[in-house]
Each structure stands twice: as C-alpha cells, then as structure tokens.
Request: fold
Amino acid sequence: MKQLVPLLLFSFLSTFSYGQNSDFGNWLIYFGNKKINSSLNWHHEVQYRNYNAIGDLEQLLLRTGIGYNLTENNNNLLLGYGFIRSENYIDVDNKTDLNEHRIYQQFITKQLFGRVHIQHRYRFEQRWVDDQDFRMRFRYFLSLNVPLNKKEMVDNTLYLSAYNELFMNHRNNFFDRNRLYGGLGYKLNSTVKFEVGYMNQFFGNANRDQLNVIAFVSF
Reply:
C-alpha cells in the first residue's frame, strides 16, 4: 500500500499539467453495491467525466438499479435507470447542454481460471436523448483482474485490471464506440478497492485518451 499510494497520486496529479485545452480527459468514478439479501442487490454509481484534469465538465452520469442473483456469486440480472448530463463543445469556446434518460437491462456472469478473474457483462439500453430522440444500444463488456502480490483477491491485494467494451447501435451507424482499458488496482478489504488506469475510446474515425480513477464499495 505504501508503494501504491505515491503511484496513484502521481498518476492523478500529473493530469493537471495538461491544462484546459488538453485532449487527455479524466474520469472520476464511484461504483457502489449494496447487498439487500441473499438474492437482491442495489447498484449505484456516479461518474464525473472531464475534458481535462478537472473543472471542464464533459459528462455527469448517475446510474442505479436493482439486481437479482441467479446464483450466489456468479450470475446477476439487473434492471436500472440512468441520468446523463453532457456538455458538448460546439466550437472552441462554447458548449451546449444535453440531458439523457436511460432504462437498461443487464446480465453479469463471472468465472475464475487459475488466478484470472473474468467478468462478462451484457447490457441493453433504451435511451431518451434531450426528450426527443429515442435510441437503443447494446454493450458487451469483458474484464480481467489478476492478483499480483497474492494468489487470490483477498485483503491488501495489488492487482492488474483490463477490460474491453464494445457499443453497438440499433440504427444508423451500427458501431458506436469501443473502450479499451488497462490499470492497476488495490483491494483494501472485502468492502473497498481502488483502481487507476488508462482508457482509450475508439469512435468511427477518432479516438480519445482518458485517465480513470475508480473507487468500488460493496457493503
């Protein structure tokens, strides 16, 4: 932990050197999961996305949902709602606001192969953009977590994290985007873990770099 903290701080603070006009963005993310009983869970999250280090808002995302465990630890169905406020640049100095409401359904399944923890997430979204445009989108998320200093993901474990997520629209451009991420995580205990990592978003003919700082809380 003593070696991880300086690394996290350096990675986070270094983004401030890019300034307001940087193309290198920063996402601050909180994922929460509350166990209601042996079958039900409450998912909630906040994502504060910036065009630069902080202070130039790109998007604020609030998402919640109720999940149902098909098995005790490995398979979960969830129905949820999300609110997303975006501030998109229309030119160098001016932005326009856009609000979006989402209903989504997802299925998560997990496997363990040796020391490699694998998660698949299938998500289907119904999106109302600016109260006018209705869209639907399918997302497939594949993640890997590999403990480094211990054989299992127990307390005080340093781990590697990686994922890829593909987004597909139901109309117009079928390919929406792809997110590729790699990072370093620290599992403090059964309740809290942290990650810091690099993500690249691929769009139709462009891409965007992000620094992600993530907190996971399960209680």
